[in-house]
Design brief:
The protein is an alpha+beta fold. The protein folds into 2 domains: about 55 residues; about 190 residues, Glutaredoxin (3-Layer(aba) Sandwich). It is about 45% helix and about 10% strand. Helix 2 links the parallel strand 3 and strand 4. Helix 1 crosses helix 7, helix 3 runs antiparallel to helix 4 and helix 3 packs across helix 5. It comes from Bifidobacterium callitrichidarum.
Length: about 300
């Protein structure tokens, strides 16, 4: 059987000019243009990096300068607290220690709880409303010493130096009223939801007479309250000095913060970083099973 022979016919492929469009080398002019464009892009990137780095450096440097200034002012304020006239029972750190023995008579072998309170601070109000009665009971039972710091740095959020007037009265109560429980109840009263004023545009003026009434309602005799609130700014300079000293105490800063804020609570000098401040969590931290046992003053 024969095998058929297939004839093949060559077909020629015509090359068009479009097939070589992208194979043409750049001209000298085009190469120069590409070089210029590349140089410009590199320059722009370099400028962006430089400017960004410059501003980052400036910000970091500004933060360091600000922190150094706070530290310097704090140190100077501490010296003033030691040398200038101060309230009778004030400590060298600008605090008032309260126990069931009275003012500045701490009990041995019990924890010392420090509280930093600002009259206009909403967070301070929450702490006082949650733990205020607990503090009073623990002090009365002799289970803790309470170290109270009267902060006034939010005067600018009122129209009449409310913070200074509120805490100035508190200081005078330590001088003229021998019962610390009256002071603690006064603090609870001024942080009460139906009394604490708002801040800034929400602030409504609170008279010194109304503050005095909170002291009377706390158990202070009227004649004593009259004396305590007669001059509502006699300790203003001392209060501001204590504020300035406290601002530089980095051990009091909340984790991740670079400045002091309220409310702040310490236990034996160390900041308590509890996320949920409750009576139960406080007692657990203090190692106190209950508030029912009275410890004799010693």
């Amino acid at each position: 059987m024969g095998v058929p022979i297939l004839s093949s016919k060559k077909t020629s492929k015509k090359t068009t000019t479009t097939d070589n469009v992208f194979e043409q080398p750049f001209t000298e002019k085009e190469r120069r243009q590409q070089t210029v464009i590349g140089a410009v892009v590199v320059a722009i990137i370099a400028i962006i990096v430089f400017v960004g780095g410059f501003f980052l450096y400036q910000n970091l440097n500004a933060d360091k300068i600000a922190q150094a200034k706070v530290a310097e002012e704090s140190e100077l304020a501490y010296q003033k607290l030691q040398n200038d006239p101060k309230p009778k029972y004030a400590t060298k750190d600008g605090a008032f220690i309260i126990s069931n023995r009275g003012y500045n008579q701490p009990i041995k072998n019990v924890p010392t709880v420090g509280v930093y309170l600002e009259p206009l601070c909403p967070g301070c109000a929450n702490v006082e409303r949650t733990l205020g009665s607990t503090f009073q009971s623990l002090v009365k039972n002799g289970q803790i010493n309470l170290e109270v710091h009267f902060m006034t740095f939010q005067d600018n959020k009122s129209s009449d130096d409310y913070s200074t007037r509120a805490m100035n009265g508190a200081i005078n109560l330590t001088q003229y009223d021998k019962n610390p429980q009256h002071l603690l109840k006064y603090l609870s009263n001024i942080f009460a939801e139906n009394f604490q004023p708002g801040e800034l545009s929400s602030y409504k003026s609170v008279s010194t007479e109304r503050l005095k009434q909170q002291a009377i309602d706390a158990g202070v005799k009227k004649q004593v309250a009259d004396r305590a609130f007669k001059d509502d700014s006699n300790w203003q300079t001392w209060l501001k000095t204590a504020d300035t000293y406290t601002f530089g105490r980095t051990e009091l800063y909340a984790k991740g913060n670079d400045s002091f804020s309220t409310p702040t609570i310490t236990i034996d000098g160390k900041r308590w970083n509890a996320e949920n401040m409750t009576t139960e969590s406080l007692l657990s931290k203090l190692g106190i099973p209950s508030m029912n046992t009275t410890t004799e003053a010693r």
